[in-house]
Specification:
Layout: H1 22-25, E1 27-36, E2 39-42, E3 45-47, E4 58-60, E5 69-78, E6 84-87, E7 93-95, E8 116-119, H2 120-132, H3 150-158, H4 189-194, H5 206-218, H6 230-238, H7 244-251, H8 268-282, H9 287-321, H10 324-350
Antiparallel strand pairs: 1-2, 1-5, 1-8, 3-4, 5-6, 6-7
Length: 357
């Protein structure tokens, strides 16, 4: 790993890590653009001021409606896994996860593009996911702030920057690191999956069997299995009486991406795909930054409560000291306490009170 290792903002695995995983090296930079009279223009971002009071470290210099904004994808190559990238088309050197502009007294005069790095294959999975939200029964309930469009992908990723993309932590896990395996191009995918079929305990009606096989392939229930070979599935169907329903039920378990899951024997690339797909399922605009904002809100409320208590105490003390009767009573009470303490000290010295051991 490098000192300034950059990670894919979708899957969390390294970009250009030097591990020999070629798909790690195939990177893209994402940014946002908006429509203008002459075409499109890259959005300009500014540092949020002050960062500690805002939910995000970057603000959009203008606020065009979402209907006029889109996601821009740029092929790029990372320099030794750092946040320095070279755009493939122009060769321009840019920095990911930070704004690059000339410094001026009082702050920058112009905004700058914001680039977020991802693996090309992870971006393809995100595209598949977005397409599936229109056809999948499972993804039909994704809310408006979920991953339902390309611009939502940008809003989700760039708003995670404070506590996600800028972190230098990577994925921890088992000796066999599932996240290293190519999640898109999986050798022998269909045949490996069909090896998990078991004989049906009883003859299955043809209609039921056909429905289960269709559900395995059409993406309504298992949208992350978008590239199965239907010919192989039909050949397996003709070879015996198989429990297709049981296979589908096991494939629908959310935790099958875990390496120690033993319910299915799956290629590690497919486990990684399911891991990334689950990340996409749970993604929401404001998800990570919203947690940060909640913590800041609690801190502000606690601070405000302490400040109110301090002011109330000061007001009480001010009124108390302005009342001569109360002040005289307080002075008498303090004087009586002082005399009592002095008397007890005298008694202890004379042996009238037991001394502490």
């Amino acid at each position: 790993m490098y000192d300034w290792q950059v990670y894919c903002s979708i899957c969390g695995a390294p970009i250009d890590s030097g591990t020999g995983q070629k798909w790690f090296d195939d990177a893209m930079l994402l940014t946002s653009v908006h429509k203008t009279e002459s075409g499109t223009e890259i959005d300009a971002y500014f540092p949020s001021r002050p960062i500690k009071d805002g939910p995000y470290p970057f603000d959009l210099g203008h606020d065009p409606p979402d209907s006029q904004r889109n996601l821009l994808r740029l092929s790029a190559r990372s320099e030794d896994g750092s946040n320095i990238f070279f755009l493939s088309e122009s060769g321009e050197k840019v920095f990911a996860l930070r704004l690059q502009f000339d410094q001026h007294p009082g702050g920058p005069r112009h905004g700058a593009p914001l680039y977020v790095p991802v693996h090309r294959l992870c971006l393809q999975l995100a595209d598949n996911f977005i397409s599936s939200t229109k056809t999948s029964l499972i993804l039909a309930g994704i809310p408006d702030d979920g991953l339902t469009s390309a611009i939502n992908l940008w809003e989700i990723l760039h708003r995670r920057l404070p506590s996600y993309c800028q972190s230098r932590t990577t994925i921890t896990g088992h000796t066999v690191r599932v996240f290293e395996y190519n999640p898109y191009d999986i050798p022998n995918l269909t045949s490996s999956l069909l090896e998990n079929l078991t004989p049906a305990p009883a003859p299955i009606p043809t209609d039921n069997q056909s429905w289960n096989i269709s559900a395995l392939h059409n993406g309504h229930l298992l949208p992350w299995l978008f590239d199965l070979d239907f010919t192989q599935i039909l050949e397996k169907q003709a070879s015996g009486n198989w429990d297709w329903h049981g296979l589908i039920q096991r494939l629908m378990v959310p935790s099958i991406h875990e390496y120690d899951d033993t319910s299915l024997n799956l290629p590690l690339g497919l486990r990684n795909r399911r891991r990334i797909w689950r990340i996409l399922e749970e993604a929401r605009v404001h998800d990570v930054a919203g947690e940060d904002e909640a913590r800041r809100k609690l801190h502000r409320e606690t601070k405000e409560a302490l400040e109110r208590t301090r002011k109330e105490q000061e007001e009480f003390d001010k009124k108390f000291r302005a009342d001569p009767v109360r002040m005289a009573g307080l002075e008498r009470w303090l004087e009586a306490g002082k005399r009592k303490a002095e008397q007890e000290m005298v008694k202890e010295e004379e042996g009238d009170l037991p001394k502490d051991n």
